[in-house]
Known about the structure:
Elements: E1 2-7, H1 10-13, H2 22-37, E2 41-46, H3 62-86, E3 91-94, E4 103-104, H4 108-116, E5 120-123, H5 134-145, E6 149-154, E7 159-160, E8 172-173, E9 175-177, H6 178-183, H7 191-200, E10 203-208, H8 214-219, E11 226-229
Parallel strand pairs: 1-2, 1-6, 2-5, 3-4, 3-5, 6-10, 9-11
Antiparallel strand pairs: 7-8, 10-11
Amino acid sequence: MRVMVKISGEALSGEGNKGFDQEKIKYLVSEIEKVVKAGYKIGIVTGAGNLFRGIELKDLSMKRADQIGLLGTIMNAIYLKDRFEKNGLKAKIFSQIVNLPDIEKVNYDSIEAALQDNFILIFAGGTSNPFFTTDTAAVLRAQEMGAEIIVKATKVDGVYDKDPKRFPDAKKIDRLTFTEAMRLGLKVMDAEAFALCRKLKIVVKVINFFEPNTLLRALKGEKVGSTILPD
Ligand code: UDP
């Protein structure tokens, strides 16, 4: 089975932190290693919240701030490729936005060949355009690599009807549709990503990535996290 895993930049730094945290990255690599060893073919889209988010660079115009954010995703991808390889895992980076020795252009034949060869595919550079987020990039690349499911790796154990941190009576929703998620204004993914999932009929699983084995359990179909389905 082909799977896209969307990992936010903060998974590399720790929540609210910047940069790279060795323990966090070690954990991330070990969770991905488990699913690779179980035979899943994995694509990863990395965010850049640990380095720069366009929105944080308030003194710049958005189109420039977002380019800086996009470059952050490239840095994260290179970092992760190195860590995967140091742990004996094969990884390739695909991106449209830079020309660097370690990075291949997004090319469907190359993506297919890399999947056949069991490489972890790291897609960097978002959608290649400002004004989008890496959630939307995850949906786009998921479709391009033929993934059946997108796992959104978060720090909460699923989708709630309201923010569980602020409201103790928030209720977890195990299954819902994209239309329901959009109607309820749930901030699991941005509206563009939701709309694209709905159009392409891609299933999204929202999990607590920081609970060990949850990624593997979710892929095996165990009852963890929340599932967002096409209508
Ligand atoms: N970004 C962009 N276009 C894209 C994807 C990302 O301009 O298609 C920029 C944007 O500035 C964003 C940053 O890259 O803030 C990092 O992405 P994101 O905020 O999704 O990272 P995460 O919060 O998941 O770490």
